[in-house]
Amino acid sequence: MGQCHALGFYKVLIVMSLPDGSAHGRFQPLHNGHLEYLLAAKAKCGHLWVGITQPDIRTLKQTADVHRGFPASNPLTFAERFAIITEALVDAGVDRGGFSVIPFPIEDPPCLPDYLPTTTKVFTTIYDEWNRHKVDVLKAAGYSVEVLWERAVKEFVGARIRQLMIAGDDTWKREVPIATTRMAERIGLAARLRTLDMR
Predict the structure, then answer these.
(1) Coil, helix or strand for 41?
(2) How far, in Å, CA of 17 to CA of 180, rounded?
(3) DSSP state letters, 184-195
(4) In angstroms, rounded to a whole number, what is the distance separating the alpha carbons of residues 60 and 134?
(5) pTM
(6) Which residues fall within 8 angstroms of residue 68, CB to CB, at 6 or more apart?
(7) Is residue 3 included in any domain, yes or no?
């Protein structure tokens, strides 16, 4: 076996030996901060389960952070977010077989094990009290939680990106992966947001 092939073989063995892990979010829409988080989580596990919270936007549930349950804060369907996340991770070089995208209704904690076994480590990040609350919820549900980082300032904010879209300000495109831009333009997300914002 050649040296390069041998190195590749051992790299595969190392990845296969890592346990499964999970990362989660609403991804409304997926932005560059989300992608950084997902890639950091993937680097620490063999297979990454990407959980989408508030998966059913027709029956939104209130959370400790109230705005997360508003229709205007949740314009993208589960299928649309599934497609964006999948495309963005593949674009970033993640093998398609190395991750799965699943519903992750953290707003309904007793249901979580129906989607993700409690033996799966959950990776998360902390920026505010809502994130700390989620850590407590996940631990109470039986999950082992690893905080990848804690930062005082959130560089990318979904609410700001949605407002830029509503305002017709294309600078939002600097804050998201190209997969998000493609989907937003294909489905007319800015127009959808304007309709939801008027409710």
Answers:
(1) helix
(2) 32
(3) HHHHTHHHHHHH
(4) 17
(5) 0.87
(6) 26, 54, 74, 107, 130
(7) no
User: Side chain identity at 131, as an amino acid letter?
Assistant: N
Q: Is residue 128 situated within a structural domain? A: yes
* pLDDT tens, residue by residue, 47-91: 999 999 999 998 876 655 545 668 899 999 999 999 999 999 999
**Measuring CA to CA, which residue among 29, 109, 17, 23 is closest to residue 63?**
109
119's tokens:
């033996």
Q: What is the CATH number of the domain that holds 179?
A: 3.40.50.620
Tokens representing residue 168 in the block: 């017709």
Ranking 7-11, 68-72, 171-175, 180-184 by mean pLDDT, the lowest is 7-11
Does residue 102 register a pLDDT over 70?
Answer: yes
Q: Are strands 121-126 and 99-103 parallel, antiparallel or unpaired?
A: unpaired
Asked whether residue 77 is domain-assigned, the answer is yes
Report d(CA 64, CA 183) in Å as an integer: 29
Domain residue limits at 87: 18-197
Domain tally for the chain?
1
For the chain, the residue count is 199
In a domain, 112, yes or no: yes
